[in-house]
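User: Could you go from structure to sequence for me? I need the amino acid at each position, not a summary. Structure tokens:
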């Protein structure tokens, strides 16, 4: 038990005491029965048994419109502490009282649905939330938000899309509304990622045409959706349309240059299929000029190695590393050293290379702009803050700062 919980429980106990005292003034006949539960609760609390005290306090406090919020608050506190079974019991206890108003019944239903989400009982939560959307206008918005959680957890992207569209502001369907936020994010951005998720599923089952349609819908709702453009590039490549793939992938450079590194592999493939292998090098050089990035530098060095030999590649890296130092560049530079190094020098260089490669593997490459979560792989859905599309590749300077 945390100090905060015990403190809160004491506060709760004082609240009940006050309520019972006030109530007994108006109804002297119940003076003798209710306080006994209350004092039992206090005794449990003073004995250091706050878990049992909770139940005693709940029994002591009658459910009515005056005490409903207190019951709800206690249930929510227990849910946040991970005691979901107790929270469910409290909220189910509320629903068993016929004296509650319709509005309060809806509120208790909403809290019970949240308990079910926390407990992983998603089917039950979904049923309650759908009923609320249907029958409780005052809870409709918040019920839909929780439904998004349910459908996200179930990876039911079709249903998630349906609910997200209902959450879009009706008069602003043609553009992203900066004022309407879903957990701090514009719902249009969230919706675009749902379309991307569904498009990925369709692509995996070979439904390229439907996947393309879904990705275009993603871009309709969020025209800066990098993920949709990358997926469109993949779809076009798989459909044998490399020129279209290049068109989509190149767009990313205009508004999200940090993602260029994520497109190089696909662009190489696409340029190769249209017979323009030299064009990719020129494109990379252009990108590197405006957005120097170690990944692009390494790709250029690789091209130079193949086209002009190791001397050219070394020269390029020497020059670039002075201005934009990176461990990846250093590792490549070591590998490009003449292979006839023998004896101690060759052995030391080999050991140095191993150390550098270990350091590279340990480094984080991506970070969330919203919560700072960082990792080795690109997540479109941040595991830290649960935002969509906020994780991005880091610049080399940023990598230096956080590692
Ligand atoms: Zn985050």
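Assistant: Here is the amino acid at each position, in order:
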């Amino acid at each position: 038990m945390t100090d905060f919980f015990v403190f809160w429980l004491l506060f709760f106990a004082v609240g009940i005491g006050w309520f019972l005292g006030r109530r007994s003034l108006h109804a002297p006949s119940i003076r003798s029965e209710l306080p006994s539960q209350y004092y039992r609760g206090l005794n449990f609390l003073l004995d250091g048994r706050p878990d049992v005290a909770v139940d005693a306090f709940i029994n002591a406090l009658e459910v009515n419109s005056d005490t409903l919020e207190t019951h709800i608050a206690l249930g929510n506190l227990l849910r946040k502490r991970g005691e979901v079974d107790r929270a469910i019991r409290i909220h189910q206890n509320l629903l068993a009282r016929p004296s509650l108003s319709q509005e309060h019944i809806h509120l208790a239903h909403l809290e019970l649905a949240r308990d079910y989400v926390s407990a992983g009982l998603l089917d039950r939560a979904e049923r309650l939330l759908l009923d609320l959307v249907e029958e409780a206008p005052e809870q409709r918005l918040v019920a839909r938000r929780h439904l998004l959680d349910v459908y996200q957890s179930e990876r039911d992207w079709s249903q998630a899309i349906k609910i997200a569209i209902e959450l879009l502001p009706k008069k602003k369907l043609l553009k992203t509304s900066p004022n309407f936020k879903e957990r701090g994010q514009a719902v249009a951005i969230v919706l675009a990622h749902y379309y991307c998720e569904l498009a990925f599923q369709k692509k995996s089952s070979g439904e390229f045409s439907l996947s393309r349609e879904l990705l275009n819908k993603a871009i309709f709702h969020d025209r800066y959706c990098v993920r949709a453009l990358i997926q469109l590039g993949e779809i076009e490549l798989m459909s044998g349309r490399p020129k279209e793939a290049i068109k989509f992938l190149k767009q990313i450079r205009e508004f999200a240059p940090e993602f260029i590194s994520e497109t190089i592999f696909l662009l190489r493939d696409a340029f190769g299929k249209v017979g323009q292998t030299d064009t990719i090098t020129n494109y990379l050089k252009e990108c590197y000029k405006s957005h120097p990035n170690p990944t692009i530098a390494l790709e250029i060095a690789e091209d130079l190695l193949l086209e002009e030999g190791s001397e050219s590649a070394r020269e390029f890296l020497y020059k670039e590393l002075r201005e934009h130092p990176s461990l990846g560049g250093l590792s490549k530079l070591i590998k490009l050293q003449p292979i006839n190094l023998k004896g101690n020098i060759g052995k030391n260089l080999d050991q140095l290379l191993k150390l550098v490669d270990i350091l590279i593997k340990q480094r984080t490459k991506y970070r969330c702009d919203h919560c700072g979560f960082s990792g080795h792989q690109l997540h479109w859905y941040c595991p830290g803050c649960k935002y969509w599309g906020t994780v991005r590749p880091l610049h080399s300077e940023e990598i230096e700062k956080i590692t």
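One structural detail worth keeping in mind: Confidence is low (pLDDT under 50) at residues 29-33, 176-182.
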